Amino acid sequence: MATVLQADKREDLRGSKLKRIRNQGGVPGVIYGKEVGNSPVTVEEVSLIKTIRENGRNGVLKLDINGNQTDVMISEIQVDPIKNNIVHVDFYAVDMKKEIDANVPVQAVGESIGVKNGGVLQQSLYEVSIRALPSDLPEAVEIDVSELDINDSLQVKDLVAGANYVINNDPEESVLSILPPTDVPNEQDAEGEDQGESEEAEPEVINESGDEAGNKGTEEE
């Protein structure tokens, strides 16, 4: 049974109204699609977060707008980078009988032989485009890396497509590889070289300093 998320239709689109909605624990949003056009709505942030956790980002849910239910998927979420709260959400009305394209995460599973031997797993593709019926979209495409050794790599064609979906990406596109370990001087050797220097030399004090580095908008406040 599909998850039902309650929503209210919005009539007042002024920026001051959007701020009031957020201050009261709501999230302004839009539902769009061929059959529904473009309709502003409001949902409760707590309920939205709970729905995402239960359903996933690619899950189909029913958006109940004042008693009228529509099958939708969450197409975009905007999050305040400072407060870390959701400030806007877009819902896409889907036809459950028609295939759609959606981006799905690629997740590496297991620890590769190469990594156990000191290699480094480098992933270059973190999501793939999937074509399927809305109800058949996977939450993620998992790839087992357990048997990969140093200098081994995987491409899109190595991903296992499901029985109910296909992968749209170029089959030759690189997904991940196991890189050789970086040559690092042995710590004991480095200590031996230091001890070989003059004992009268004063230790050098080094002060390190550095700087830390700390969606598409559909409405304007």
Automatic annotation (TrEMBL):
Keyword Translocase found: no
Q: Where is this region: Disordered?
A: 174-221
Listed A to Z, the keywords are: Ribonucleoprotein, Ribosomal protein, RNA-binding, rRNA-binding
Q: Quick one: a GO cellular component term? A: ribosome
Q: Where is the composition biased (Acidic residues)?
A: 186-211
Residue ranges annotated for the Large ribosomal subunit protein bL25 L25 domain, each copy included: 5-91
Domain Large ribosomal subunit protein bL25 beta as annotated: residue spans? 100-181
- Could you tell me what this protein does? This is one of the proteins that binds to the 5S RNA in the ribosome where it forms part of the central protuberance.
- Which HAMAP family does the record cross-reference, listed alphabetically? Ribosomal_bL25_CTC (MF_01334)
Q: Which PANTHER family match?
A: RIBOSOMAL PROTEIN L25/GLN-TRNA SYNTHETASE, ANTI-CODON-BINDING DOMAIN-CONTAINING PROTEIN (PTHR33284), RIBOSOMAL PROTEIN L25_GLN-TRNA SYNTHETASE, ANTI-CODON-BINDING DOMAIN-CONTAINING PROTEIN (PTHR33284:SF1)
Subunit structure comment from the entry: Part of the 50S ribosomal subunit; part of the 5S rRNA/L5/L18/L25 subcomplex. Contacts the 5S rRNA. Binds to the 5S rRNA independently of L5 and L18.
Similarity section = Belongs to the bacterial ribosomal protein bL25 family. CTC subfamily.
Can you name this protein?
A: Large ribosomal subunit protein bL25
The gene behind this protein is rplY
